[in-house]
Amino acid sequence: MSTVALMSQRTYSEKELEVSMEKLLQELGGMDSLIRPGDRVLLKPNMLSARPVAKRITTDPMVVRIIARMVLDCGAKPFIGDSPGIEPFPQVAKASGIAETGEELGIPVMELDSPVPVPGNENARFKNIEISSKVLEADKVINIPKLKTHAQMLLTLGVKNLFGTVVAQRKAEWHYKVGLDRDIFASLHLDIYQAIRPVITILDGIWGMEGHGPGSGYPRNFGILAASTDAVALDCSICRILGVPLEDFPLYREAKRRNIGQTDLKEVLYRGDLDPLSVIEGVDIPRLDSLHVLPGFLKFFGNTMISRPVQDPNKCIGCGECVKICAAHAIKLEGKRLNYDYRRCIRCFCCQEVCPVNAIGFKKGFFLKAMEIFRR
To answer: Which pTM does this prediction carry?
Structure first.
């Protein structure tokens, strides 16, 4: 049976958060039950992009700071790392407050680079995954995701956060390889999760993001701290708390199909002061559609039926970041005008993620509009 600890926590006040974090981890046996003196421990936050902390795109530096201190108190050697998709790592580390955290504590903050193949796993769906060698060199990994919605995968929580160990531009290459099937992409995330096997996942859901995350939504105070040694159970539990039917969550569908982690929430033991059956009302969750959900006779029409990214020309600054990230080579920039080739576009919405001025939006496809009418 998996255990998920849930705590109510509304602010990043250092003293309050220290107390809550200590209580949270004690529900799972305490940090010293996971970390041994001398362990080299990677702290893996979400460092998606170089945006201000108040945008709630990245894991809050106070959460990382407190966890790092707890690891230091165990006599271990923590370091902080991630691999942003396109922006320079030093720029992201500074904007997110993570660089300052490392300086204050005297611990390394480093880019996860130098890709190497992950160890073989006969149950893996993908046999050629490469992640940063720095992850595999760590004795332990502590996964520290941010609670956010995700325009392609519905939610980005514990399991999805480990996709950040794939080095830089190779993330976009994987988007291209898996194409429009979100369940296949979720299966890739599960393979990475099983390869890394973090000793614990600690979710920063105090402030998170709703709407068209992970980079273009808007902040919301969810008031949640959560932790588990089973990131699948944690992610599915948060999905339910956000009022999302589990069957709508690609990670749940694929984890259940492959029997990875605990997807039956009746078999999860909950601890902490937050009711696991509580529901946060009115969360703005992206509506997903993709080719794999179209009826067979409609798949011929494919890209004309499903939702797509669109430019807001009044916001665009012509920086070209969307063109750089597009592994499908589906975008051309002419001045400040974007031209999409929707026959090539795989609907990964990476262009939307990296846009620094939220100039890329989302246009509902015919199939999604029809589903919404049917559900009314």
So the answer is: 0.87
Identity of the residue numbered 113 = D
Report the percent of the chain where pLDDT is more than 90: 73
What confidence tens digit (pLDDT) does each residue in 146-176 have? 999 998 899 999 999 999 999 987 887 887 7
Q: Are 317 and 358 in contact (CB under 8 A)?
A: no
pLDDT digit string (tens) for 273-314? 999 999 999 999 988 654 444 444 444 445 555 678 899 999
Spatial neighbors of 36 by CB under 8 A, at least 6 apart, are: 74, 75, 76
- H or E stretch including 65? helix 61-73
Domain boundary residue, one of 240, 271, 302: 271
Task: Name residue, tokens 């514990």.
Answer: 158
286 part of a folded domain: no
Mean pLDDT of the chain, nearest integer: 90
**Position of tokens 């430019």?**
311
252 and 314, same domain (yes or no): no
Note whether 139 and 264 are same-domain residues. Answer: yes
Contacts 24+ apart (CB under 8 A), 245-251: 248/154, 248/288, 249/154, 249/155, 250/153, 250/154, 250/182, 250/183, 250/185, 250/186, 250/288, 251/153, 251/154, 251/155, 251/157, 251/159, 251/160, 251/186, 251/189, 251/190
Using DSSP's 3-state secondary structure scheme, residue 303 falls into helix
Domain shared by 215 and 126, yes or no: yes
SS3 270: strand
Q: Which residue reads 């107390």 in tokens? A: 19
Q: Which residues, 6 or more positions from 5, have their beta carbon under 8 angstroms from its beta carbon?
A: 24, 25, 27, 28, 226, 227, 228, 270, 271, 272
Going by C-alpha positions, the residue among 105, 194, 182, 126 that lies closest to residue 158 is: 194
One domain, residues 262 and 340? no
